[in-house]
Structure to design on (165 residues):
């Protein structure tokens, strides 16, 4: 898994799946359609301003609420390369890896990185660098198996690839 570099978008604690992708848009499973409404109830302009490779920095318990896979799909389809938070709701954590979205837990990075900062991440080592402030942080490195899921694009793509081998 390659190093990631992007702009930080900051969100608070307890961002639930309804804020990530509001229920009124769950009549589709098309990733690009979901991306148009990503984070709409937390920041109405987010989907129009986020760029491929950008990074969400959030507070504790990110992804709480309903156990919908639409939430990490919307984030990934919007171009977000990684979400960093102190903690994630457990079902969101699993759904993120199942859909191929990198997430990292780091209380220090989540508290210190500001909106708009340039951030670089090495998923293999867990190193998070705030290039704007010059500070570095550690997250638990993504285990090799989980990096395999991410590299393949998620659980289904991983198993399709494995079965074809």
């Amino acid at each position: 898994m390659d190093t990631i570099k992007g702009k930080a978008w900051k969100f608070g604690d307890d961002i639930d799946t309804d804020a990530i992708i509001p229920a009124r848009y769950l009549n589709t499973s098309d990733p690009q359609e979901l991306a148009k409404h990503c984070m709409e109830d937390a920041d109405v302009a987010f989907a129009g301003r986020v760029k491929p490779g950008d990074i969400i920095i959030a507070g504790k318990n990110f992804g709480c609420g309903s156990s919908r896979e639409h939430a990490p799909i919307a984030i990934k389809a919007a171009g977000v390369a990684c979400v960093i938070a102190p903690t994630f709701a457990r079902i969101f954590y699993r759904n993120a890896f199942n859909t191929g979205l990198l997430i990292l837990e780091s209380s220090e990075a989540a508290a210190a990185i500001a909106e708009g900062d340039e951030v670089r991440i090495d998923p293999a080592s867990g190193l998070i660098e705030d290039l704007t402030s010059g500070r570095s942080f550690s997250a638990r490195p993504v285990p090799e198996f989980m990096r395999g899921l991410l590299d393949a694009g998620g659980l289904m793509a991983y198993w399709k690839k494995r079965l074809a081998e």
